[in-house]
Backbone:
């Protein structure tokens, strides 16, 4: 029975893993039935081939670039700058470009597989602003992240609701990283008229907008809503509806987040090294139980403590279970404060559904929250997760996201009443 007071919490509760639920429903799928992971608009749309020597193109390209191709159990995978639960990549990127030299003002779909932008809508006096920040007109870029949920629900069923939002947060993190590298600020926006945009962008029930990132100059000016509807184009080769996902997306899309003042992070990365980090970011598949230094650990913490560039806010609290950090007592910490001393590595391995990465890493992190807006909270958790990846990899420390854990048992281990939104492992 769903609670009335916070529907987000009810949907989170409905997708919990427990020892029993995982035994009874282990998510085995026939890999040959995987829906396609790349959206391609019909060939009659105009396309711009991305040239990485052009800084505007390179800014957009690096938000979603394919960085490694590999074959696993006869299935080819194209891994990208953004991680994704099960490498299923439900997220798509659209970008409105206005007043940018050499580009037609319009809304483009980023066609990741072919390195191009597809112009799906030309602007006149209309634009995405009217759905997002109604009294402003942006010269520059408005990125939209959408989720093609079936790519993830195909395997993870109802729990894919979480992975869609977390993946979306990571993708926002990838946009932030590319923006930093191209000397641009961004602002993340979570509270806007997503439902109207889904209709006007022709997504039907198969794709939904989760967030927006703006980079550009805002002018006081009214823009109209899109004067024409974009035709529906299916982002997968086949589709099976999931009523739970559709209902819970819609209910959580209208939840208002907490508000805060916009503040930009102050990042100080060496640009060449940071570019290499973005390009070579990977999830660690096996840790070797090696220690990391306290300095490295604190450096990663510093990245997490940087302000989030958004006015729509949800507080994420981070618990860290330290197993192997030189000069630190192993134990459970809330932030940097030791709550329980002890070696809990076997326990975190078990809690994360017996995944060795959560046992053999140097630190297992758990993100918890008492949110107002579930969609925002999950995406902020993913955004912070991307910082953990990049901050760690920048220091030559390995990292992996962990979306699979026994929810209630983890909550009891942490001794918190807040929902456990995400976990991560760092180490060597
Ligand atoms: C939301 C989310 C949840 C994930 N959960 C797990 C997990 O439970 N266990 C794991 O080994 N990897 C997990 N991963 C890592 C993905 O498997 C990985 O990102 C994907 O295979 C692509 O590889 P890459 O990150 O090296 O590009 C997760 C990633 C994301 C973004």
Residues:
């Amino acid at each position: 029975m769903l609670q009335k007071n916070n529907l987000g919490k009810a949907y989170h509760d409905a997708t919990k893993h427990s020892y029993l639920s995982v035994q009874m429903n282990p998510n085995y799928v026939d890999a040959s039935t995987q829906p396609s992971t790349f959206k391609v608009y019909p060939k009659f749309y105009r396309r711009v081939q991305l040239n990485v020597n052009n800084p505007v193109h390179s800014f957009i390209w690096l938000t979603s670039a394919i960085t490694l191709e590999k074959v696993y159990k006869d299935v080819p995978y194209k891994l990208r700058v953004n991680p994704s639960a099960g490498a299923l990549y439900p997220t798509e990127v659209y970008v409105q470009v206005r007043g940018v030299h050499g580009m037609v003002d319009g809304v483009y779909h980023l066609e990741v597989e072919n390195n191009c932008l597809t112009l799906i809508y030309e602007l006149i006096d209309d634009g995405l602003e009217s759905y997002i920040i109604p009294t402003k007109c942006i010269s520059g870029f408005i990125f939209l992240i959408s989720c093609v949920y079936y790519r993830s629900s195909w395997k993870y069923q109802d729990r894919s609701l979480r992975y869609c939002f977390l993946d979306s947060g990571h993708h926002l993190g990838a946009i932030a990283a590319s923006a930093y590298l191209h000397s641009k600020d961004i602002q993340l926006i979570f509270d806007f008229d997503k439902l109207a945009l889904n209709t006007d962008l022709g997504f039907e029930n198969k794709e939904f907008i989760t967030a927006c990132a703006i980079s550009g100059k805002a002018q006081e000016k009214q823009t109209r809503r899109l004067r024409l509807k974009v035709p529906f184009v299916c982002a997968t080769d086949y589709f099976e509806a999931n009523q739970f996902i559709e209902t819970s997306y819609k209910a959580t899309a209208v939840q208002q987040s907490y508000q805060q003042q916009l503040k930009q992070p102050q990042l100080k990365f060496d640009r060449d090294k940071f570019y290499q980090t973005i390009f070579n970011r990977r999830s660690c598949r096996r840790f070797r139980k090696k220690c990391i230094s306290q300095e490295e650990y604190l450096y990663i913490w510093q990245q997490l403590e940087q302000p989030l560039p958004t006015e729509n806010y949800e507080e994420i609290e981070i618990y860290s279970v330290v197993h192997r950090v030189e000069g630190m007592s192993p134990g459970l910490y809330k932030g940097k404060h030791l709550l329980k001393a002890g070696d809990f590595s076997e326990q975190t391995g078990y809690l994360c559904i017996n995944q060795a990465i959560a046992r053999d890493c140097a630190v297992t992190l758990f993100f918890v929250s008492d949110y107002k807006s579930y969609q925002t909270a999950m995406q902020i958790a993913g955004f912070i997760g991307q910082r953990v990846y990049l901050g760690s990899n920048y220091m030559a420390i390995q990292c992996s996201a962990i979306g699979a854990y026994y929810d209630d048992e983890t909550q009891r281990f942490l001794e918190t009443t807040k929902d456990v939104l995400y976990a991560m492992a760092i180490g060597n």
